[in-house]
Design brief:
Elements: H1 2-17, H2 26-32, H3 36-52, H4 54-75, H5 93-104, H6 114-130, H7 139-151, H8 154-175, H9 181-266, H10 271-299, H11 315-324, E1 328-334, H12 342-363, E2 368-376, E3 379-386, H13 406-416, E4 421-426, E5 433-440
Parallel strand pairs: 1-2
Antiparallel strand pairs: 2-3, 3-5, 4-5
Helix pairs in contact: 3-4, 4-5, 5-6, 6-7, 6-8, 7-8, 7-9, 8-9, 9-10, 9-12, 12-13
């Protein structure tokens, strides 16, 4: 008992710490044992057989009680369990068979109606004791009480136990021939208590095993759901990264190709057609990319990015590529941006990249953009404003179906990771678009500078 308690305490401590103990090899060893394994497998086979044909076990119990009752009916001398002689010599043999049948036959319904079966047998037992009889078939009362404790209502079980205790007290003290009533009451109450206890023990064990099976199923479902959620988040992140990186580079390539095609046309060069084909192919590739990313976001598969994540220092090469595409960009920083964490720097880079990509896509190369990144105590502000053509409605930079594109959704999702406030829409002047994001993150104190407009 001490070793078992120590093992359970260790298991509970491991559970509290969140660690997993390796499964005990005891069950596997018992299953592989030639005798114990056969018993375990035989128990499972019996359970399956009982589920398919429940009447077989009920019939077997009835036949068992009949077999232990026949010798006493045919060759018995009428002695009680306590050595006293009962009154069967004064009664016809048919009465003995009738009482025996009345005690045994109800066992056929013991699992379908355990309460009714017990009370019928208890009434028959009280009747036989009132006639001074001790029949071996009286064991049916213990079997019925065990079945009620195993499968019946617990409230009814309390009344049944009280009835059984009252019956044995009446039988030992007043009704049946017993020379020593007190030992008889003690013996009979012990058997009643044992039958009830065995039934309750097996019932609790069955409930415990059912709870463990239910818990195992729930844990399996929760594990699968956790895997799906993790894969969904990772796949969404990969889709966002692909949109930011590949989409931006394709936008720059299309803008450069369109500009070169216009220049070649003005100079009457033969390369103008090839450059237009290059621009059209790039736009087609961007449409296919959006379609593939939509599938990637819906399927929620698992993937990982192995390339280094960009940061604040990578904004200069990004702006150089945008300027090479024909967009005039002004860049201004405030505060110590290098002190920001890697995750914050990646968020800032992606927001600027997406805002400039939208400017190239919708405003064209003839416009200009102002990029400002400012780090203050606890906040980082990213502001990208362009001077594109006049905007009639906020839906001018949405997707083809009128919904926000992946880029705008990605900006909001990245800002939400840091409790950010996002402002997206046309400028107050009626020309151009503004992206204004304020992230709530700890950073180094801001350097002195002009406030943002």
């Amino acid at each position: 008992m001490g070793a078992m308690s120590a093992e359970r305490a260790a298991a509970a401590a491991d559970t509290a710490r969140g660690t997993a103990r390796p499964p005990s090899p005891g069950f596997d060893a018992a299953w592989a044992h030639p005798v114990l394994g056969r018993l375990l497998r035989g128990r499972q086979d019996r359970q399956r057989l009982d589920r398919r044909h429940p009447w077989l076990l009920d019939t077997a119990v009835v036949l068992f009680v009949v077999l232990i009752s026949l010798p006493d009916l045919l060759w018995g001398h009428g002695s009680s369990p306590f050595g006293d002689t009962d009154s069967r010599g004064r009664l016809p043999s048919a009465v003995l068979f009738v009482f025996t049948a009345a005690l045994i036959v109800p066992l056929w319904w013991r699992r379908r109606a355990p309460a009714a079966t017990f009370f019928v047998i208890a009434l028959v037992s009280l009747a036989q004791w009132s006639l001074g009889l001790w029949l071996p078939a009286g064991i049916s009362a213990l079997i019925a009480l065990y079945t009620l404790a195993r499968q019946g209502s617990l409230r009814v079980l309390g009344w049944a136990f009280a009835v059984a205790a009252a019956n044995v007290v009446l039988a030992a003290c007043f009704l049946a021939p017993v020379d020593h009533p007190l030992p008889g009451v003690f013996f009979l109450l012990g058997t009643v208590t044992a039958a009830t206890t065995v039934g309750l023990t097996l019932r609790i064990r069955q409930m415990y095993l059912a709870a463990l099976e239910d818990r195992a199923r729930r844990l399996e479902v929760e594990h699968e759901q956790r895997l799906r959620l993790t894969a969904a988040a990772e796949r969404s992140r990969v889709a966002r990264e692909m949109h930011d990186i590949v989409g931006h580079n394709l936008s720059v390539m299309v803008s450069v190709a369109d500009g070169a095609a216009t220049l070649a046309t003005n100079r009457h060069e033969q390369s103008a057609g090839a450059l237009r084909i290059l621009g059209d192919t790039g736009r087609q590739a961007m449409d296919e990319l959006r379609r593939v990313l939509g599938v990637l976001r819906e399927e929620q598969d698992e993937a990982r990015s192995l390339s280094p994540q960009p940061g604040i220092r990578d904004l200069d090469p990004l702006l150089a590529r945008v300027r090479a595409a024909g967009l005039a960009v002004t860049y201004r920083t405030v505060g110590d941006l290098d002190a920001l964490g890697d995750g914050v720097q990646l968020t800032v880079y992606r927001i600027v990249q997406e805002a400039l990509t939208n400017t190239l896509k919708h405003a064209g190369t003839g416009s200009a953009a102002e990029v400002t990144v400012a780090a203050d105590t606890g906040t980082v502000r990213i502001r990208v404003a362009d001077t594109g053509p006049q905007i009639a409605a906020m839906g001018s930079r949405t997707g083809a179906d009128g919904s926000p594109g992946h880029g705008l959704v990605g900006i909001r999702q990245r800002a939400a990771m840091y409790g950010g406030v996002v402002t997206l829409g046309p400028r107050d002047t009626g020309h151009g678009w503004i992206v204004d994001v304020v992230l709530d993150v700890p950073s180094a104190p801001a350097a002195p500078g002009d406030p943002l407009p």
